[in-house]
Write a structure and sequence with these properties.
Elements: E1 16-22, E2 28-34, H1 36-45, E3 49-52, E4 57-60, E5 69-76, E6 83-89, E7 104-107, E8 110-113
Length: 119
């Protein structure tokens, strides 16, 4: 069965959330948005491409930072309204230079930093 990006359920702005996960250890690295063209580009090039809502432009992860995400596996959830991109990540995934964007934890009512910047 051929995959058609148009078969996904996008929101009213034509976007779908995409969760990036480290294919080697399962760590959740980040969440960003894709549109149908970003999905197609990601599958075509195997370089993860997102849609930047603030810049209204395509964003190839690592294009300027060198912190590249290469696609290992592209998964679609059961409702077809969320994506999981399993990747090999070069360097930090987060713009704060941390391995993951999820670097704080709420513990006993306090927000605690659980991950220091890599660089």
């Amino acid at each position: 069965m051929n995959f058609d990006p148009a078969s996904l359920k996008y929101d009213e702005k034509g976007l779908i959330p995409a969760i990036a996960q480290d294919a080697d250890n399962g760590d959740v690295l980040m969440m960003a948005w894709m549109n149908a063209e970003a999905v197609a580009r990601t599958l075509d090039t195997r370089r993860v491409t997102y849609w930047s809502r603030s810049r209204q432009a395509f964003w190839i992860k690592g294009e300027t930072s060198g912190h590249v995400q290469n696609l290992v596996e592209f998964r679609v959830d059961c409702d077809r309204d969320c994506l999981l991109v399993r990747v090999t990540q070069t360097g930090p995934a987060c713009h704060t230079n941390r391995r993951s964007c999820f670097y704080t934890s709420v513990q006993d009512g306090d927000e605690v930093e659980i991950m220091a910047p890599m660089i």
